[in-house]
Amino acid sequence: KNQVEQSPQSLIILEGKNCTLQCNYTVSPFSNLRWYKQDTGRGPVSLTIMTFSENTKSNGRYTATLDADTKQSSLHITASQLSDSASYICVVSAFSGGYNKLIFGAGTRLAVHP
Amino acid sequence: DARVTQTPRHKVTEMGQEVTMRCQPILGHNTVFWYRQTMMQGLELLAYFRNRAPLDDSGMPKDRFSAEMPDATLATLKIQPSEPRDSAVYFCASGEGGTSADTQYFGPGTRLTVL
After folding, report:
1. How far, in whole angstroms, is CA B43 from its chain's centroid?
2. Separation in Å, CA of A98 to nearest CA in chain B
3. Which pLDDT does position B99 carry in this prediction?
4. How far apart are the C-alpha atoms of B55 and B38, rounded to whole Å?
5. Fewer CB atoms inside 10 A, N or C side of chain B?
6. What is the pairing mode between strands B5-7 and B19-24?
7. Residue B93 with chain A: CB contacts under 8 Å
């Protein structure tokens, strides 16, 4: 069964600190892996997308890694800001039937405190 | 700044009533997705359209839910009759479609409460 699991479920850090969020998946056939940021009351916004051959991708202070062998990904946030408080959702695509079937993780809720 | 728009943003209704949610995809996008998000289940895909044709609605309860695209600028999701367990945030997303790297752009969602 296609599945995406994220940890931790929630996280509290102080402003300026770094943090790392984890994503483990069992999805086949794997197409790509994305990290989304979802602010409260808003729709998800794409941060990064990585295909099978990519093992790291950065977007400003966000750096995602992918280990396709162990089926693990991480999202590292550097020098956190209050605006980083949000849910971070790991989404794995199985490209089948001509489109991306997206399998969503439950998300990690991050709170950045001053 | 092109965006996916959804109406209404909030809807409170009583059990048994019909609910219609609307979505305007980004102009030029040919794929449209409907998702439901709850605290318990997270995001779930309900339906997927490409070029206005429904390609996958396996995630949608067929007895009460229906999704259509009357034209390229409008997608609708209808629930009839609504039940309290339908209470959730419903997101519409659109994309350019067709490739494995296609990015989906999400709308702000419709928060539905069924009493």
Report:
1. 12
2. 6
3. 62
4. 24
5. N
6. antiparallel
7. 43
- Distance (Å, whole) CA A13 – CA A20: 11
3-class SS of residue A8: coil
Q: How many CB atoms lie within 10 A of CB B21?
A: 21
Residues of B with CB under 8 A from a CB of A: 4, 31, 42-45, 48, 50, 55-56, 91, 93, 97-98, 100-104, 106-109
Q: Extract the tokens encoding A4.
A: 């995406």
Distance from CA of A107 to the nearest CA of B (A): 8
Q: Quick one: tokens of A62?
A: 């966000």
Q: Which residue is associated with the tokens 């494995």?
A: B100
- List the structure tokens of A43: 């729709």
- Residues in A closer than 8 angstroms to B97, CB to CB, are 99
Average pLDDT, chain B: 91
Distance in angstroms (rounded) separating the CA atoms of residues A45 and A60: 14
Q: pLDDT-derived band of residue A52, with 50, 70 and 90 as boundaries?
A: confident
Question: Where are any strands of DSSP class E within A8-107?
Answer: 10-14, 19-26, 30-38, 45-51, 56-59, 62-67, 72-77, 86-96, 99-104
Predicted confidence (pLDDT) per residue in A82-113, tens digit: 999 999 999 998 877 766 778 889 999 999 99
